[in-house]
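>> received
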Amino acid sequence: MAVGIVLFALVGAVAATTYSIRTSRVTTNQVEAGRYASQVIEQIQRSKSIDSEGFFTDRDCGNFGPFGDSDEYEVTVSCIFDSLAVDEAEVGVTVTWQEGNSSLSVTLDTVVSKDSGY
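>> returned
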């Protein structure tokens, strides 16, 4: 009986440690993916600042990624140029990665306008 209790406690400790490590890894990946998404938005804003007329004439935010040590983060950029608001674009950046059998992602959205500094 005592062996069973000790074994149960050990299995519980191992399970809790495994869960903690997995949660820590997911959190670390979320922070890193958020940083990559911010870098892409900053690059789009710089591109717009350098050539605002060209940015809104070409109606293209560019291509980015993948990021990470082994290209584990995939980047998807969505730029919506409203035909009525020719001086504004809605930008969405999604950074996706695999975590076990799941696909996780972080998305950042912003509006880029011709008249703003960004």
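>> Residues 41 and 93 are 7 Å apart (CA to CA).
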